[in-house]
Design brief:
The protein has helices at 78-89, 94-111, 136-148, 180-194, 214-227, 241-251, 255-262, 279-288, 296-302, 309-314, 331-346, 360-363; strands spanning 2-10, 13-22, 28-32, 42-44, 52-57, 113-120, 151-158, 200-202, 205-206, 233-237, 269-273, 291-294, 318-321. It is α/β, with parallel strands linked by helices. It has two domains: 2-44, Urease, subunit C, domain 1 (Roll), CATH 2.30.40; 52-363, Alpha-Beta Barrel (TIM Barrel). Helix 2 (94-111) runs parallel beside helix 3 and helix 4 (180-194) runs parallel beside helix 5 (214-227). 38% of the residues are buried.
């Protein structure tokens, strides 16, 4: 099918009279500017932008948006929000998860996201017993993506412990827990079932350095590499100051520093949040080619802190955005927050601009 846009943003900048041709699967096969519409062309209203990838999603959390917006007796934080999330997640069944994900993915498409990386850790039944089909919940995510047509990177989450150094998991984490063998079996089964699907990729997501040990992560990455040594690896890291402090107390190192000292982190990695990184760590991430997965509306909602965007961009670091807990599902709002919180913190304007790209919107 052919589409025709009077104006479209291409990799080299704005172009006029753009013909966009798709193949029988609906994927773009040709993009040509200064073209004429064909008789069959569907004319698109307004300027056309590329679809945005949503780098970080916990689909089920869309249905709890607002539940943690009443103050408790103690000062509220990420950690008190997490307890509300645990109570909510204990009640979800596979059918409900599938319905929530399908509704969310439709909202994402309408907002301009055309693909999503689903950081999926709701694996088991309430209480922690695996379903007869180990991929029961993950398959609901896949079905929701297929129903709506959004591109999916499915990231089953490796979650085994409740704190740095292999602490016992909390009761509310029971539905997330897997050891290396069962987790790799889950990944293998998902790849066998879904690897041939259009617009779909399977990777893994070690939940955080709190939730794995060095040995467990090494074993899992080795097993993943036997299946696919290019598969993406996403991890929550340095989201909270308490997390950084706990990591230093346990290891003597900050989380990002510890990760880089023990693993070969490169372009296949996405470091989600990385909110509390210092100058040296910003250089490490930029230099390695890893992507910082930033979630400004969720990070603001949870009181996480502010990512050092200006410092990171000076090092030409790669970043993307995600709607995470889906308190908002809008790439425009997340990009605006990304810039505006920098202005508030530094009391200057146009933080994301560079000498090569003076326009902040275009740069973002």
């Amino acid at each position: 099918m052919d589409f025709f846009a009077k104006s479209a943003l291409l990799s080299r900048g704005w172009a006029q009279d753009v013909l966009l041709r798709t193949d029988e699967d609906g994927l773009l096969s040709e993009v040509r500017s200064n073209a004429r519409p064909t008789r069959a062309s569907l004319r698109l209203a307004g300027p056309v932008l590329p679809g945005m990838p949503n780098l970080h999603s916990h689909a089920f959390q869309r249905a709890m948006a607002g539940l943690a917006e009443s103050a408790g007796k103690e000062p509220d934080s990420f950690w008190t929000w997490r307890e509300v999330m645990y109570r909510f997640v204990s009640r979800l069944d596979p059918e409900q998860l599938g319905a929530i994900a399908a509704q969310l993915y439709l909202e994402m498409l309408k907002a301009g996201y055309t693909s999503v990386a689903e950081f999926h850790y709701l694996h088991h039944q309430p209480g922690g017993r695996p379903y007869d089909d180990l991929g029961e919940m993950a398959n609901r995510i896949v079905r929701a993506a297929q129903q709506t047509g959004i591109g999916l990177t499915l990231l089953p989450v490796l979650y085994a412990y409740g704190g740095f150094g292999g602490k016992q998991p909390a009761r509310g984490q029971a539905r997330f827990i897997n050891g290396a063998d069962r987790f790799l079996r889950l990944v293998q089964e998902l790849k066998a079932r879904h690897d041939n699907k259009l617009n779909m990729r399977i990777g893994i997501a070690p939940h955080s350095l709190r939730a794995v040990t060095k040995g467990l992560l090494s074993e899992t990455l080795t097993g993943l590499n036997r299946m696919d040594d290019t598969a993406p690896v996403h991890i929550h890291i340095a989201e909270q100051t308490r997390e950084v402090e706990d990591c230093q107390e346990w290891s003597g190192m900050r989380p990002v520093t510890w990760l880089y000292n023990h693993f070969d982190v490169g372009q296949r990695w996405c470091l989600v949040h990385a909110t509390h990184i210092n100058r040296m760590e910003a250089w490490m991430v930029s230099n390695s080619g890893a992507v910082a997965g930033l979630c400004p509306t969720t990070e603001a909602n949870l009181g996480d802190g502010i990512f050092p965007l200006g410092l990171y961009m000076r090092g030409e670091g790669s970043f993307g955005i995600g709607s995470d807990s889906h308190i908002s599902v809008s790439p425009i709002e997340d990009l605006r927050w990304l810039e505006y919180v920098q202005r508030l913190r530094r009391e200057i304007r146009n933080v994301a601009a560079t000498d090569r790209q003076r326009h902040v919107g275009m740069r973002l």
